């Protein structure tokens, strides 16, 4: 698929530091600390994958109270770090959600999010509800950064997203849903759901799942 459709990849970890360490071992890049997601019970660290895309490593935040519901991206239920989903770029989320619903794809409600970066600046965005998990995370949520500078600008450099694809036992139905959203992610038949990213890095070309 055109990597220009990808805003970011979400690499979930049951422990954020373990996720950071795993990615550093694979890519040879130490992720830049991101910040807390207030109320969600998570925090992140980032690696740029291009000028306007990045890898988000996300895990539980011990500095926040445990939220009433599940933490984002199912990090509490993960046994090890893994690519759990991805975010696609969008500009008019309300129109997108209504159009998707007419096509039989439920993206969930549009929400606002924010986090404070280590330098004290506040990043804000609008996004479709990431708790609405579709096709085991292969159908993305959508995000609009508005006037906030894209996080890739300050994330650790050195990596490039070369390719993103997916595998799933029900590949044809998922491919149809993605097509209705105007996305060209290729889904092939596989024994289990998987999001697969090919990343060029200081350690060479790496396959991340």
Short structural summary:
This protein has 209 residues and is of the alpha+beta class. It has helices at 16-27, 93-102, 171-180, and strands at residues 6-12, 32-37, 42-50, 53-60, 82-89, 110-116, 122-128, 141-144, 160-168, 186-189, 194-201, 204-208. The longest helix has 12 residues, at 16-27.
Task: Give a verbal description of the structure.
- This protein is of the alpha+beta class.
- The chain is 15% helix and 39% strand.
- It has one domain (3-208): 2,3-Dihydroxybiphenyl 1,2-Dioxygenase, domain 1 (Roll).
- The strands form two sheets. Strands 2-3-4-1-5-8-7-6 form an eight-stranded mixed β-sheet.
- Strand 3 (42-50) and strand 4 form a beta hairpin.
- The longest helix has 12 residues, at 16-27.
- The mean pLDDT is 94.
Task: Supply database-style keywords.
209 residues; alpha+beta; 2,3-Dihydroxybiphenyl 1,2-Dioxygenase, domain 1; 3 helices
Structurally, how many domains make up the residues? 1
Task: Name the poorly predicted regions.
Answer: none
Count of distinct strands: 12
Cα separation of the termini: 16 Å
Sheet having the most strands: 8 strands, mixed
Mean pLDDT equals 94
Rg value: 16 Å
Strand fraction equals 35-45%
The CATH C-level name is Alpha Beta
Question: CATH homologous superfamily?
Answer: 2,3-Dihydroxybiphenyl 1,2-Dioxygenase, domain 1
Instruction: Give the SSE order as H and E letters.
Output: EHEEEEHEEEEHEEE
CATH fold node name: 2,3-Dihydroxybiphenyl 1,2-Dioxygenase, domain 1
Structural class estimated from helices and strands = alpha+beta
What CATH architecture would you give? Roll
């Amino acid at each position: 698929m055109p990597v220009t459709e990808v805003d970011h990849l979400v690499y979930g970890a049951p422990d954020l530091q373990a996720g950071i360490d795993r990615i550093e071992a694979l890519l040879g890049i130490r992720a830049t600390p991101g910040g807390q997601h207030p109320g969600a019970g998570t925090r992140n660290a980032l690696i740029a994958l291009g000028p306007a895309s990045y890898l988000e490593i996300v895990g539980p935040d011990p500095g926040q109270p445990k939220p009433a519901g599940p933490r984002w991206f199912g990090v509490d239920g993960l046994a090890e770090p893994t690519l759990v989903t991805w975010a696609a770029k969008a500009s008019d989320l309300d129109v997108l959600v209504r159009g998707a619903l007419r096509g039989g794809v439920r993206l969930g409600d549009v929400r606002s999010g924010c986090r404070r970066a280590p330098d004290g600046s506040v990043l804000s965005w609008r996004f479709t509800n990431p708790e609405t998990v579709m096709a085991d995370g292969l159908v993305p949520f959508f995000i609009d950064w508005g006037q906030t500078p894209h996080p890739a600008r300050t994330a650790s450099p050195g990596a490039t997203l070369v390719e993103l694809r997916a595998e799933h036992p029900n590949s044809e139905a998922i491919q149809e849903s993605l097509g209705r959203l105007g996305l060209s992610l290729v889904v092939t038949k596989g024994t289990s759901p998987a999001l697969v990213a090919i990343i060029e890095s200081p350690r060479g070309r790496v396959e991340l799942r």
